[in-house]
Every structure is written in C-alpha cells, then in structure tokens.
Amino acid sequence: MSELRPLATRLLRLLLLGTACVLLCGCVYLRLLELKKQFSHFDENFIVEPTEDLTLRCLHPVLEPDDLRWLGASPKTVTVSADGEDWSVRWVKEPALGTTEATVYDMELGLEFADGYLVEVRIPKRFLVFVPRDLIVNMLRSTGAARVDKNDRKADVQTEAPATSALPNLNTIQAMLGAPTRPAVPTSAGLVYDYRYRLDSAAALDKPIEASFTFDVTTGALRKFTARLPRGTLNYDFSSPTPTAEKPKKGRPAKNGL
Questions:
Q1: Closest C-alpha to 90, from 61, 127, 118
Q2: Chunked in runs of 10, what are the mean pLDDT values of the chain (258 residues)?
Q3: How far apart are the C-alpha atoms of 133 and 22, rounded to whole Å?
Q4: How far apart are CA 120 and CA 107, in angstroms?
Q5: Which residues, at least 6 apart from 142, have a Cβ–Cβ distance to it below 8 Å?
Q6: What is the DSSP letter of 221?
C-alpha cells in the first residue's frame, strides 16, 4: 500500500498540472478572441501615435505578460517602471545552412505593460523603410475579420495595400531580411521564401518562429505572408478575392414579360 502512495501523488500532480495548462490555454484563447474583436473596431480601441516609430496604443488592453510569453515573445530585456514593465523583444534570423552573413538580420518589438496589461507596441522606424506603417495598420484592421480555426490554431486574413502605400515586393523583402533560411521554392501559388528566427532571450523557446512570403513568379509582387508562431499560424492573403457568382433566385418563370 505504501508503494502506491508515491505513484498516486505523482499522478495527482500531473493531473493538476494538465488541468492548469488547459485552463491557461483557454483563458489566453478568450483574450485573443477579444483582441480580434477590438481589431474589427480598430479606431475605437487603438491609437496610432504620431512618432517616428510605429507606436500603437491599446485603449482597452486585454493581453497579459504571460500571454505574450505563451505566444513565443519572451523579452530580451525588462525595465521595471512605477506602474509596469517595458520589454524589448528581439528575434535573430537563422542563415541558410552552411552560410554566414556579414549583416545580422533581426526583428524587434518594444512592449509596454501597465497594471498587468499590454498598453503599447512599438515597431522601430528602421523596419518602416521597407514595410510602410499604413500597411501594418491595415493588416491589423483586417485581422478583425480573420477566419479562425481553433483546432488547427490558425487564422486566415484577407487584406490589401492601403491607397497611400504599395505592397513590399521580392526586392524589398530581400533588402530587409536578406537571403531566406531555406532555398526559394517555386510552387503553383508563386515563389516561396522561408525565413526562420529564434528569440534573443535567455528564456528562448526551442521552437523558432517562421515567416514565409509568397511572390508572383513574374512580377515579384507579394501575394501572401504567413507567420508560424510556437502556438499558432497567421496567414495574410494579399491577392484579390475571387468574386462569388450570384446564385439564380428560385421561383416560377415570368409569363408574358410580367
């Protein structure tokens, strides 16, 4: 009997840990759904500050620090303030196998938390040279209408370039990100460039994030962008949606033109 007690204790701990994980994931998912709803009413919930960086203020914040960690955005540095924290989150690109690059290609975010919630996101101005701020804001607005598949943990977004700026193309992306981590692959959808990034953080997850860009083979125009995060996938489709044919209305045929 005494031999069974340690086993029962371990099973109970595993059960409690599993329950806690399920509850945590469920809470995060609900907060992400609320954020999606806010994106669908963008101007009521966010302010784009007039700064050189792209600075987005959250008027009704919903995400917590652990939500960002769960999504794969652990900070490189944390600066504690009177009412919260400032994070610097940085990802560094993995070069192609067997190659070295003179330039370190990275992605960086500044995050501000107050009273336990994310209240500000900053994208440094050096990235806006390649990807216009209006396009990034347009992508966020479009996320509010995303089709979400909870089982596969993915969201499909139909978006487009704003009238004030053009989409980045193959040359623009290469100038910003360098050569892809994996060789470019021609597909029926276009030419696919895959980039892989790892967190520059002591708490870095084993699983990297991946960014895939699909370009038109002939023109080099961007057709699709996919971000594969440790906990889900975002697909942004920049191609024009195919119009749906109108179904004929049912009813009796008209007689004598009436």
A1: 127
A2: 52 41 60 95 97 97 94 92 93 92 93 97 94 94 94 91 88 94 92 95 75 96 95 88 49 46
A3: 36
A4: 17
A5: 39, 157, 158, 159, 160, 236
A6: B
Cβ partners under 8 Å of residue 127, min gap 6: 107, 108, 176
Both tokens of 152, joined, read 């596969």
Where does residue 111 rank: exposed (0-12), middle (13-18), buried (19+ CB within 10 A)? buried
Q: Map tokens 């400032």 to a residue.
A: 86
Which tokens go with 130? Answer: 């390649």
- For the whole prediction, is pTM greater than 0.85? no
Per the DSSP assignment, residues forming a β-bridge with 80 are 85
**DSSP 8-state symbol, 69:** H
For 224-238, b/e burial (b = at least 16 CB within 10 A) is bbbebbebbbbbbbb
Name which of 149, 158, 153, 213 is nearest 187 in CA terms: 213
